[in-house]
Amino acid sequence: MSELRHRRGEGDGNDKAETAGESDHVDVDSEEEKVLEEKYVDELAKNLPQGTDKTPEILDSALSGLSSRWRNWVIRGIFTWLMIGAFCLLIYGGPLALMITVLCVQVKCFEEIINIGYAVYRVHGLPWFRSLSWYFLLTSNYFFYGENLIDYFGVVINRTDYLHFLVTYHRFISFSLYCVGFVWFVLSLVKRYYMRQFSLFAWTHVALLIVVTQSYLIIQNIFEGLIWFIVPVSMIICNDVMAYVFGFFFGKTPLIKLSPKKTWEGFIGGGISTVIFGLVLSYLMSQYPYLVCPIEYSDSLGRMTMECEPSTLFRLHEYTPPQFLQPLMKIFGREKITMYPFMIHSLALSIFSSVIGPFGGFFASGFKRAFKIKDFGDVIPGHGGIMDRFDCQFLMATFVNVYITSFIRTATPQKLLQQVYNLKPEQQLQLFYALKESLENRNILNMVP
């Protein structure tokens, strides 16, 4: 018995020693990995492309006589106007051109975010990280864009047999595709790098949340009418440009530590400019049915249409100003203000884009500082990557979609019909007879000539 106890004690001692040895080994490995990772993050800023430092050779030689401050000002100004011009061309191209552009921007932003993660953890030789990331992007797009197609083109899709199957089981197919990726990730796990692999799994899903979900909301905003896309995007552009201008010439008071170059003068100047710009742009755009009508599929025309009778939001109304503005109105010899109701909503949008919108940029600045990089990429000289220009746009898109859903959107016959066509034939008949009976009881059907 004593020998057995001795052996057990001996075994316990050996187990403890083994465990301690393994623990020491893990600690050494983790310390070595931390040191290696820190060195790699330091090198990351040197290896990843930085757009603010990249300039075309012709432009670089032409501006060689300027100081770095004014040189950056000119470069940013040139490419800002080029981007504004490209944006105007896309608007002229119509909703399809805008949707394709949103998809391209989404893919590029996702690539820039994933490239940082890949560069940080490439030293560990983790398997399948990039392939899994792109697979999840494709799966997410299939789900979200499928939802949009079903919402807005359900009538025509249901008339095609093989598409009817995809519509009926869209969410089940999407979830099945996600499960394939999930199983793929689990099978790719390597014992030594569990923590890092799960970190990258989270990295990919956060990137999908930031990029794919927001682009889906942008597409929904476009379908509500081009004005719900153009005005918010233009407000962010105006705020960004005017904050830079006011900060460049008058900025003295730092705004936030995450972005040392941001100043209170730029923040306030950009905010006031955006509110004024938003009201003027909203007034001008509310006059054109092409910009204010929702995009719907016309069953009779067999195509998308943007023709409608503008809603009350886009018809001139007279408003009596508050009492404290009455003396000012008397100076102009007027008692009431004539304006489009949409301008009141644009005021809310402009305030959000001026006060909350910049925090999307601050969030991106904090993210870049964590990895000691200046820009997400080098696609746009003087500006950085695509993500550097769209960090605020994604936050704005979410707000616009929430605002439309909460205060603007109402059910339309077109959308209700799309849901009815998804019902079984006997359910459609049941709905028809119930609706007919209700209309007859209220004498509405008898009023129709």
TrEMBL record:
UniProt-listed GO biological process terms: phospholipid biosynthetic process
InterPro entries: PC_trans (IPR000374), PC_Trfase_euk (IPR016720)
Main location: membrane
Membrane topology: Multi-pass membrane protein
Gene Ontology cellular-component terms listed: endoplasmic reticulum membrane
GO molecular function: phosphatidate cytidylyltransferase activity
Region described as Disordered: 1-33
Protein's UniProt keywords contain Translocase: no
This protein's UniProt keywords: Lipid biosynthesis, Lipid metabolism, Membrane, Nucleotidyltransferase, Phospholipid biosynthesis, Phospholipid metabolism, Transferase, Transmembrane, Transmembrane helix
Entry similarity comment: Belongs to the CDS family.
Protein name: Phosphatidate cytidylyltransferase
Organism: Parnassius apollo
